Amino acid sequence: xxxxxxxxxxxxxxxxxxxxxxxxxxxxxxxxxxxxxxxxxxxxxxxxxxxxxxxxxxxxxxxxxxxxxxxxxxxxxxxxxxxxxxxxxxxxxxxxxxxxxxxxxxxxxxxxxxxxxxxxxxxxxxxxxxxxxxxxxxxxxxxxxxxxxxxxxxxxxxxxxxxxxxxxxxxxxxxxxxxxxxxxxxxxxxxxxxxxxxxxxxxxxxxxxxxxxxxxxxxxxxxxxxxxxxxxxxxxxxxxxxxxxxxxxxxxxxxxxxxxxxxxxxxxxxxxxxxxxxxxxxxxxxxxxxxx
Length: 292
Hints:
Helix content: 40-55%
Radius of gyration: 21 Å
């Protein structure tokens, strides 16, 4: 059965590859981008199976209007893909207030608002799928990417909670965690903070030199065509996998990070238990107090 997908950020990267592959297999796409004319070639080949709209995802009012219009004109949307985002590089104090606000607005707030705009429609039609393109940067962190990681760890936390809220309505959620891939993430779509000399010889300066070509580029084993194919295959499964870790580097980094985190947690077990009150309410109690 032909499905209809709603995808943000379709002009390049994973969004473009998903759109191309889905159209090739006969699906219908509601594609949004800042410049929808970048999809003119696909529109010429696939006609009315490609529905397009101009959208800056940081404009919440416009986002809601586009979502409502897509559902109204297309009838049913089976899969929503939150893909729009970009990388911001630099030490935390090298970034401007405007850069910080824009990174959070694009990568985190817009993803949350897209969910809030689409979920009532998905719930009303009896279910669907929601796919969040996150990053292995939501499980691990590196210097000179603090704000990017803040958004990716943030959206992971959002979906850890929201996925459980939506399950009773037949809405499956998949959080995709690609590793470093051969897209424009570190190229033309990337943004850098203003360099401060004090960071030039540290990891921030080294990353900047790698992005500018003064040092060898970071390894990028991920094939965006294969990643898009894996995302589509996950949507084909009867049950949505909650996490989809894609790329050998993503698997290796997540494995190391989670093992190190668990080892540190186990080392603090006795200290953790020692801070319980003598009359602690059992952890299984639904009335247990919650606080900082």
